[in-house]
Batch of 4 targets.
Target 1
Amino acid sequence: MPGLRGRVLVLGPLPPPVHGAAVVTKGMLDWLRENGGSVSVVDASVSSHGIGSIASRFRVATYLLARLWFHLVCCVRLVRRPEALYIGGAGGSGLYFQLIPVLVARLLRVPVVFHHHSSAYLAEHSRPMAWLCRLTAASSTHIALSASMAEQLRQRYLRRSKRPRILPLSNAIFVADAGPAHIRDGSSPVRVGHISNLSFEKGLQEVVDTATELRATGHDFELHIAGAAQDERTQAALDALLEPLRSDPRITVHGPLYGGALAAFYDTLDLLLFPSSYRHEAAPLVVLEAASRAVPAVAYPIGSLSEILFADELLAAPGAFAEHVTHLVGRWKEVGAELSRATLEGYQRSRAAATEQREQLWVGYLGRGS
């Protein structure tokens, strides 16, 4: 197949640090290059977990200046008028910085492909997101992570206009292929796991509560926890929370896992626990990574999670996560294989559809050589 023939300017975070938006931005960048696109990149990564995590005024100023610099560099490169500007979207104050290149792109008539990664501005009105939606030209595209996210975006910010278009595109296409997956057979012990940037907003308290309830009810289980805390203070709090569990041989606490070790982690699990209440949570890659290995996940119905769990039985009511998982583990012999199969098939459908949609999106902007 002939390669893409146009130019794309990419603005967004790239690993390190490793987080969902950075992985997706790199995945889109790699695909464009592999398919012949001419790509210029402005890496907007900063070595921080956000301005709220910075203690000193000097470091705050440095952080803000660094972010401003990246976006001004992007504006300068827009003068070359690429066929499209791709933006790995921010979710909070970063939107104010992203307004700058969006405005310049509008003035230069460069279409913007804005890839949304946050559900926070869908739950509550965001002034910078409203401005950004008004600035994106009719030839631009907003990439949402699910059909429901696309509809929420349309209703809250783009209801008065049929353009720019909104494209639901599953994050499943950004999951690395780790080979064939096997359907779980519902056998014991039921191996449950949790992996994330470990924090309370990502649900570690609920994971510990689930382990406590599983122990109390006498179910045959194992629990594996993987990931790293975002800072030393959080690590100390997590260590104190996990201390009562460390003596139980059924419970294993791993560090951060990547590459083959990460794939092996998923392959040891029967069920992923993802009780996140993070305000920006949208369509987390860890849930889709697990799904690619036929591992179902239990989660709260926030963001786009209800569309990437692929079975209603995997949705936990707010405040009832430990009870929901314990009930599911108790019935695992009857339901485990079917949930595993439904998860893998749902993931495969989403990936196939998204693969075609991504192709159509970029051929529309760049075309293919003869």
Target 2
Amino acid sequence: MLLKLSGKFLLFTALVLAGTQSYAQYADIPIYHADVQTQPGEPLPYTFFKHDSGYMHRNLVSSLRDMLVVNPNVSSLFHNHRTMQVQNNVALPRVFQPLINFSYRFMKANSRRDAEAANGVKHDHLSFQFVRASFCFGNDPFMVLAKIKRESAFNRTLVSSGQAVGFTQMTGPGIKEVQHQMSGNADLAMPGVKEYFRRAVACFTGNPAYHNFSGKTDDLKKAIRADWKLDIIYGQILLKVYTAYTIAATNKTRSLEDLNAAYAGSFIMYNGDMTEVNGRCTGVKGPMKIEYSCDIMQNFEQISNQWQFQVRTSRVNMT
């Protein structure tokens, strides 16, 4: 079954574009942010989609613990093996290999020519690590690939004009958000968040204390540029926080439509650019962050449909 998400995503985009700057359609349950508290039905301040840090909600941890995977076959694969998330430096079983091979082919076809040499890591190894990290952190691997295609075309050595770094082009505010979530400070993160991500880091690297997430932003950018595993970890944590927060803050279910909307919302939060642009993806004039989200979601739809076609025609075993 091919995923047909374009209409749903365009509807989501239209709702965002049509809303007021308060984005009131998102405020259906109480929000607990480091800078704001609201009651059900009360419009969210503009800060909900700003590049703030310290996103908090009473249901955040339960959303974090979920496998937030949209593609149905990959979701089944991840859920069927989720007990392996408790392993340190998890060794994925052979049933993951078709997904890894598919991810490798997508990387190879969509990376900059200089990416593999610049990264100093072969695409086949990175594709394995992207799938493994996505499994450990509970993110959709196709959303991860779609985002990286947009941000860096798989060349992690690129540095933007705004000094964003790495596969997912981590910004200063993004790094600050990861630091706050990993701080253990009750004023900045909900209880249990740090412990959850330490477990995910251990699943990926074998060491829950692989990185202490402290230091100045510029120093952390240097650390991310120097260590491809750390680069992946920061990107996985930030994506999971934003997506889980969007689910918790908007009372979304785990339906296909709601998960897609949650990821679209997380990409809007990640970008945060209010500059008006003529959107090639959305087809209308609106904030850059909406165009950015739309582009990534279209990338995801392409990847996911290609995978679904492969599963259907090759009878890939996803158990």
Target 3
Amino acid sequence: MALTTALFVLQWTAIGMHWLSYTLYLFLSVSVSAITHNHNHVRMWKSDLLNTLQDWWLTVFYGFPVFAWIPTHNKNHHRLNNRPGDHTIWYRVSERNNLLTLLSYPTISGFYQQRAIKEYLGGLYRKNRGRFYLSIAQYAVLISWITVFVLLDWWKAILFVIIPQQVSLFSVLIFNYVQHVHANEESDWNHSRNFTGLFNFFLFNNGLHTAHHERAGTHWSEAPAEHRKVEHLIDTSLNERSFCWYLLRNYVLGAFNKKCRTNSMRLQRIEAERTVNLMKMREGDSVPAQRPTRHIKCREHGARNLGKQPCSDEIEPGHADDISPLQLGEEVFLVHGAVTGAISSGTGGA
């Protein structure tokens, strides 16, 4: 945080645009997205005032009000984990995993998350005006921050304010995509892809995604220990050492060589379910095979929560608000139909 702030000030006042400092600054912008994620699961400070100031700092360097993580991530993604109803599902428009689906995902996912943010604010307005105004204040702080620097020097504002914000926003959605694409959302342990190398260290252990989903309320510094506990349960193809090599192998080399691409565990599961159902129908059994439900786990209970309300540390730190029933949009059923059709025609996955 201190380095990001200092580099911003130095570039604006003294250094200007230099490729070395700017490259470091953009990487720090990516780190800001990781800090934002961690802060929304485990608050950084014990003081409410300091946490509010932290929210404001993150908002201006992240580029979006950070309260938005509560309805879209804490309450939704961690509850459903890429199953139908998750606003961030990677397979909304395609079952493939290529450069086009990777680069288009942030825009598509961001669009579908806006409804959850709007509904969350509406709920706060009716039930908790104090938190509603704190959330709206983040919009005010962000707009004021951008406006002031645009008025001071619009070109510098683009370089040192707006572009880094977009890098931060874009990168965190890219991370979400690569950590879930072609995994099996119905599996207890194969629902996420992990990155264990040096890149993970600089991003405050955000690469250890399976353990994070199982223990969302655990402090980020404890993630390596949690990952070691479950690493043997995860399919080896979902434990990647290098994030950069994964990107190069799948999205560049994979464009020319199918062996470099990922295989969809989700489509393999759907095909297996389809085969079982066909066998049952041929045997005269009209009851389709039931998909095993992946139960929610939480830090407070340590065991399966049997699909009940997520625990407070999986929702938002310090608040265990009631969650209204999720309204599944028509797009969920359209996607399911597209998946079924893709399997029947032999397409839909790399």
Target 4
Amino acid sequence: MIRRGALLAATLLALATCRPSPERVAARSDSASRVSYPTDEVALADSVILLSGAADKDIEGLAFSPDGRLLATADNGGRVVLWDWRAGREVRRFPGRNFTEVRFSPDGRFLAAAGFDSLVRIWRLETGEELRRLPQPAEIEALAYSPDGRLLAAAGGDRVIHLWDAREMRKLRTLVGHTDAVYSVSFSSDGRSLVSGSRDRTLRIWDVASGRQTALLSGHNDSIYAVVFSTDGRLIATGCRDGTVRLWDASSGTVLRQFVGHTNSVHGIALSPDNRLLASASFDSTARVWNAQTAEPVKVLRGHGRDVNDIAFSADGRWLATVSDDRTGRVWKIP
């Protein structure tokens, strides 16, 4: 995920993994963060829970835990915050620098985050211990675990997708083909394919086992900021700098539907677990929910005061989370 106006991080010379000094991150009991129910008229129409007070910089990334109990947010001030969002409690903070992305491992045991310091940091969720730092040659804009948790994909300013063995913490291979920065990656549900979106305005589909590019999809007229596979692997949703959202047939590479309504860049994209709904986050300060089968709008989520940077469905599809440059997260009830 791109952060506008950010400088490129310095290239790291070391290509091998590095192990930090053991560090445990204390749980938060005296947090200054707030979890509250909005009182402003606009937000009351849509927002269920407002998460604020934990960030003093723009919040760039978020992820629900696999069981939906926890929510992680990542800001470019160098904090990953773990929330028990239903209880209104900040659980833990994980330190770093200039985060853009955060992801839970599929088994919920680990948390990975990355950003403009060109490092992927991995923590043990239960204890907060930082286990490893995986160096990349450039700033990191995209991060994804494979469905079985064995692989971790990271990509960014060097135009290359790096595949890591998430258990042994070693690099397996690189996927080379994009001609500009890679902003988003997503694995198919069977873990055999990976899709990537780039500033070069293309989508590329890769065979994970061989590292071979199997398809190149074009059609967007500007940078592709967000990509996601559907849970059945048949569809790919994309969000573009030109404000459009598209739904693609993953097999044929054809555009099935286009979703029009945002008035600025689409920076985050998500499909509900049943693939019936598509959600998008935009720099127009809104998130939108669409009928994925008809491209008709279902709801416009208003309440954020600035750019909305990322969006995610909970595993049960009942909740939708967003984060913004207004330094807050919001959790919305899905109609």
